[in-house]
């Protein structure tokens, strides 16, 4: 019995010393600041007037994938969108605009990330498209774009609560309803 | 053969005793900070009760610990869940979120509750009272819709 106790105590001390070091490190709070948005590794050469082009193009691609009910492709184009969002430089923006854009970036990168992670769950992808589209619309309104872009609306999306999406075509190709009702909805107007 | 089994039992015992020494943090806060969701919105009592019972353990700075959760390895699992839960959504810091983030979080709450993704089934397995009835889900959904 004495032997057992000795072994038990030795084991206890061993585990104590081996775990204490790694577990006692304080959990670091992720610093989500403007730095994150700025820390782009490869900035594409884009004209200041339309530096949203890579963001918008990957958004449109993703939207088209969802219209075609292709969750796997949507996940891929959403990854492109994430990268484009992270690469965005808001140099020409005022401080106030920059703060708003920073929040849009944090939000939209999160939504795009969810769409990428849910390559097997188109329902979940479309849920995130509801808010992602609002982010993209706000981004266009602040930053501006050379492209002609429209706001489209579907009353049946978002559990019949209605939702908007952004499109570069003046016609309805519904990413929320997909091939079951691709023409459901209407164009609300141009986003400027 | 017999001593072989004996050693396995001893080793298991050693590990079980040993891991009890692993330190865990306790997620509890005396005050209700001004950023608490209860100070950001007016929450009807019946909705607040649902949030407290089904959500706050992992999504606020106050966890209501059952006795077994202080015993390892449960304590480690609980710690991890609370840490991850708070990172995703912390009702105690809700007031610190930007309007956009608030909107995102409320939208996700509504959808995940509706789809039965939250509370996690691994949580309701041990917390039967945290399971949401159809009526409770509806209360949450209506509260968020009317905010």
TrEMBL record, chain A:
Source organism phylogeny: Bacteria, Pseudomonadati, Bacteroidota, Flavobacteriia, Flavobacteriales
Pfam families: DUF3347 (PF11827)
Native organism: Brumimicrobium salinarum
PROSITE patterns linked: PROKAR_LIPOPROTEIN (PS51257)
InterPro entries the record matches: DUF3347
Keyword presence, Oxidoreductase: no
Coiled coil residues, start to end: none
Protein name: DUF3347 domain-containing protein
Residue ranges of the region described as Disordered: 20-48
DUF3347 domain residues: 55-147
Keyword Disulfide bond included in the entry's annotation: no
Signal peptide boundaries: 1-20
Entry keywords, A to Z: Signal
UniProtKB/TrEMBL annotation, chain B:
Family matches, as InterPro entries: Haem-bd
Record bears the keyword Membrane: yes
Superkingdom in the source lineage: Bacteria
SMART domains in UniProt: Haem_bd
Residue ranges crossing the lipid bilayer per the database entry: 7-26
Entry keywords, A to Z: Membrane, Transmembrane, Transmembrane helix
Protein name: Haem-binding domain-containing protein
Species assigned in the record: Brumimicrobium salinarum
């Amino acid at each position: 019995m004495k032997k057992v106790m000795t072994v038990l105590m030795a084991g206890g001390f061993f585990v104590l010393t081996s775990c204490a070091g790694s577990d006692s490190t304080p959990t670091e709070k992720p610093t989500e600041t403007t730095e994150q948005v700025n820390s782009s590794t490869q900035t594409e050469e884009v004209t200041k007037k339309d530096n949203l082009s890579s963001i918008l193009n990957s958004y449109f691609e993703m939207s088209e994938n969802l219209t075609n009910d292709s969750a796997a492709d949507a996940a891929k184009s959403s990854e492109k969108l994430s990268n484009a969002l992270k690469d965005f430089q808001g140099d020409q923006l005022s401080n106030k605009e920059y703060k708003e854009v920073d929040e849009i970036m944090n939000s939209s990168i999160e939504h795009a990330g969810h769409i990428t992670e849910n390559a097997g769950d188109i329902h979940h992808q479309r849920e995130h498209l509801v808010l992602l589209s609002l982010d993209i619309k706000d981004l266009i309104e602040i930053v501006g774009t050379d492209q002609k872009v429209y706001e489209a609306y579907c009353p049946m999306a978002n559990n019949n609560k209605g939702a908007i999406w952004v499109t570069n075509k003046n016609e309805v190709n519904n990413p929320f309803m997909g091939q079951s009702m691709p023409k459901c909805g209407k164009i609300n107007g141009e986003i400027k | 053969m017999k001593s072989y089994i004996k050693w396995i039992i001893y080793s298991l015992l050693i590990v079980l005793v040993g891991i009890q020494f692993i330190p865990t943090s306790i997620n509890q806060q005396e005050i209700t900070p001004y950023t608490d969701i209860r100070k950001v919105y007016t929450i009807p009592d019946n909705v607040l009760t649902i949030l407290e019972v089904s959500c706050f353990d992992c999504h606020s700075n106050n966890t209501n610990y059952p006795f077994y959760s202080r015993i390892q390895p449960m304590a480690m699992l609980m710690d991890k869940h609370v840490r991850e839960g708070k990172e995703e959504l912390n009702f105690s810091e809700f007031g610190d979120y930007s309007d956009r983030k608030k909107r995102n979080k409320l939208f996700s709450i509504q959808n995940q509750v509706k789809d039965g993704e939250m509370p996690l089934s691994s949580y309701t397995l041990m917390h039967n009272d945290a399971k949401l009835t159809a009526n409770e889900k509806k209360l949450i959904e209506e509260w968020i819709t009317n905010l």
